[in-house]
Design a protein that fits this description.
With 277 residues, the protein is mainly α. It has a single domain, classed as Retinoid X Receptor (Orthogonal Bundle), CATH 1.10.565. It is 51% helix and 3% strand. It contains 13 helices and three strands. The chain has a three-stranded mixed beta sheet with strand order 1-3-2. α1 crosses α3. The relative contact order is 0.18. This is NR LBD domain-containing protein.
Length: 277
């Protein structure tokens, strides 16, 4: 277990130029928006414009604002004004998620079943970490409903709502307030990826051992890099419940439906795993 690759290299540009049957549109949307390996969490402003100067819904003057009471249960969708830039970043992150996993030597030694299981169960949480690292901002608008329809007071957890969006934005803001470093994000991604609690794993004990090693490496790193902040390691671990509480279907509906179209996310990720070296 001493061979744990503590800091997987950030995937470089140009590693996914080949055409994938299901991913041509995805990659063509994102190819001009790749974040360079040397970018930092503050690099978003240098690579892409700020997607929204304010969190939440568009202003009442926009064509997508609806004069209905907005509550936590209000169903929402991405605002039209940031649909393309959000889709471009999400496209890049989907590729980077697979590149990240495959850059870890311990991941490559796992069975094919466990590789797929880990990625399918962790992709939305890994993407949320990329969003937090980039201080990613986005705007949403209420989904229009007819005046005669009754607002759903208890929407499915799979549907994007204002409450769900606020939870995502709160997590991003919390990570910024904690000044999480790039290397700490790498460790958090490994902790999320190597989770023995995911159903369907054939070797959960091995995955749990990897998770324990990553926790130890993270603790050692924090002890050296922040010797006076004795609570920082604990605060990092306290971010994990929020990540695990992310509903992948809701996340997919909000951020990915415009790039995956009718393609199932499971099929898309499996093809990415096969196609990206």
């Amino acid at each position: 277990m001493t061979s744990m690759h503590s800091f997987p290299p950030s995937p470089g540009d140009g590693q996914h130029g080949e055409e994938f049957s299901l991913l041509r549109n995805l990659l063509s949307v994102g190819k001009h928006h790749l974040v360079t390996p040397g970018s930092t969490s503050g690099g978003l402003s240098n690579s892409t414009p700020n997607l929204s100067s304010e969190r939440g819904c568009d202003s009442p003057m926009s064509d997508s604002f609806y004069r209905t009471p907005i509550t936590g249960n209000t169903k929402v969708q991405l605002a039209k004004k940031n649909l393309f830039p959000v889709s471009a970043r999400v496209s890049d992150w989907l590729v980077k998620i697979v590149q990240f996993a495959k850059s870890i030597p311990e991941f490559s030694t796992l069975s094919h079943n466990d590789k797929i299981t880990l990625v399918l169960n962790s992709w939305s949480r890994l993407m949320l970490l990329y969003m937090a690292e980039s201080n990613f901002q986005f705007a949403v608008t209420p989904i229009p409903t007819s005046h005669n329809s009754v607002s759903d007071s208890n929407p499915s957890q799979d549907e994007p709502t204002m409450k769900a969006v606020e939870s995502l934005q709160t997590f991003i803001k919390k990570c910024q307030q904690m000044s999480v470093e790039n290397k700490e994000y790498e460790f958090l991604r490994m902790l999320v990826l190597f989770n023995a609690g995911y159903a369907g794993l054939s070797s959960p004990k091995n995955i749990d051992q990897l998770n324990s090693v990553v926790q130890q490496l993270l603790q050692q790193h924090v002890r050296v890099s922040r010797p006076t902040d004795v609570m920082h390691y604990s605060r990092l671990l306290m971010c994990l419940p929020s990540l695990y509480g992310t509903n992948s279907k809701m996340f997919e509906t909000l951020f990915c439906k415009h790039i995956t179209k009718n393609t199932d996310m499971e099929v898309l990720l499996k093809e990415l795993l096969q196609s990206i070296s």
